[in-house]
Amino acid sequence: MKQSDDSGSGVTFDSPIARELADLSARRRALEAVEVSLSGTTRVLTVSNQKGGVGKTTSAVNIAAALASVGARVLVIDLDPQGNASTALGVPHTADTPSVYDVLIDEFPLADIVQQSPESSNLFCAPSTIHLAGAEIELVSQVAREHRLRTALEHYLADDGQWMDFVLIDCPPSLGLLTINAFTAAQEVLIPIQCEYYALEGLSQLLGSVRMIQRHLNPQLHVSTIMLTMYDGRTRLAQQVAEEVRSHFPREVLDTVIPRSVRVSEAPSFGQTVIAYDGNSAGAIAYREAAIEIIRRATNEKES
Ligand code: ADP
Ligand code: MG
Questions:
Q1: Through-space distance between the first and last CA atoms of the chain, rounded to whole angstroms
Q2: What number does the ligand 1 atom closest to the CA of 52 have?
Q3: Nearest residue CA, atom 24 of ligand 1?
Q4: Which ligand is closest in space to the CA of residue 81?
Q5: Would you say residue 2 has pLDDT above 70?
Q6: How many CB atoms lie within 10 A of CB 296?
Q7: What is the per-residue pLDDT for 258?
């Protein structure tokens, strides 16, 4: 028998929605009590998956904002000509804005193009503009074409005034020279996987590319984190995909799963991350939990 409240509204306390709300507020309280300690080193993660629409940009900006909200200094490098990460972080990126294009092609210092996000004094963005669409081809004839981002980032981080705890690179959906620049500049690969059909399709190609970069360009690079996104727990399919990914990558997959959530998809149209737009929504709470896991995992790895 379901227990009814005595207001006569017919609302039941143990309805799925009531349970979900109770669960959310417990998780929110747990997050508020969390204390984090940052590693004291700069972690550079590239958010990659050569499939489009799997949640790369959404994950990059929301993880970045969640990290910033617990005190980390975070730089997002927008390496996708679409500029969606720049939009979500509220950073101007019209064609005449100095951008990652100028860094890669004309060797501008990163410091000349990085902007602070209006969302947080800890959150920064190196914007992309439409010019970046041409960079993929222009880079082909450049000297040190695979290392340009890495060199720029090293110079940037060498200045103490520009200390970052995290650098997240949002990649375009391809394995071209822009993504290779990201792989060469990073230590870690974060792969978002959409809990839908064909989730694992193309993953072996991505892992093959990571191995190739390890061998030839960046021995440090490794897949540290896999994040399940757009999860709809009501479908058998999402559960099956999640189980399958976990069985293949038991160490890499985060415990936190990002639910499919309207608030997450609405936020960019307000030039915001979901952390700023609705920080207590289910999607924001999941991204905040994922960010804590990302911080803790590295700390644990160092201790063990
Ligand atoms: P990618 O960068 O891999 O191309 P996006 O991050 O742009 O993917 O996401 C693709 C689309 O899915 C966007 O419209 C985004 O708003 C939406 N989306 C991403 N994550 C979620 C989520 N957790 N819930 C609802 N919509 C989402
Ligand atoms: Mg994207």
A1: 49
A2: 4
A3: 260
A4: 2
A5: no
A6: 13
A7: 97
3-state secondary structure of 59: helix
Nearest to 24 by CA among 291, 290, 281, 231: 281
Give the Cα-Cα-Cα angle 55, 268, 109 (nearest 5 degrees).
Answer: 85
Provide the pLDDT for residue 11.
53
| 56 alpha carbon, closest ligand | 1
Is there a contact between 75 and 114 (Cβ–Cβ < 8 Å)?
yes
The Å distance, Cα 85 to ligand 2 centre, comes to 7
- The rounded Å distance from CA 56 to ligand 2 centre is 5
pLDDT number for residue 300: 66
Question: Of 181, 159, 158, 1, nearest to 100 (Cα)?
Answer: 181
Residue 90, token pair as written in the block: 């509220």
User: What are the backbone dihedrals phi and psi of residue 193, each rounded to the nearest 5 degrees, phi first?
Assistant: -125, 125
* Short-list 245, 248, 240, CA closest to 228: 245
Atom of ligand 1 nearest to the CA of 258: 23
Q: At what angle do helices 148-158 and 177-185 cross, to 10 degrees?
A: 40
Q: In terms of DSSP H, where are the helices of the chain?
A: 16-33, 56-69, 84-88, 100-106, 132-138, 148-158, 177-185, 203-216, 236-248, 262-266, 274-277, 282-303
Q: How would DSSP label each residue in 109-160?
A: -GGGT-EE-TT-TTEEEE---TTHHHHHHHGGGSTTTTTHHHHHHHHHHHSG
Looking at residue 225, the DSSP 8-state letter turns out to be E
| Report field, pTM of the whole predicted structure over 0.85 | yes
User: Mapping DSSP to helix (H, G, I), strand (E, B) and coil, where does residue 222 land?
Assistant: strand
Whether residue 8 is predicted with pLDDT greater than 70 in this model: the reply is no
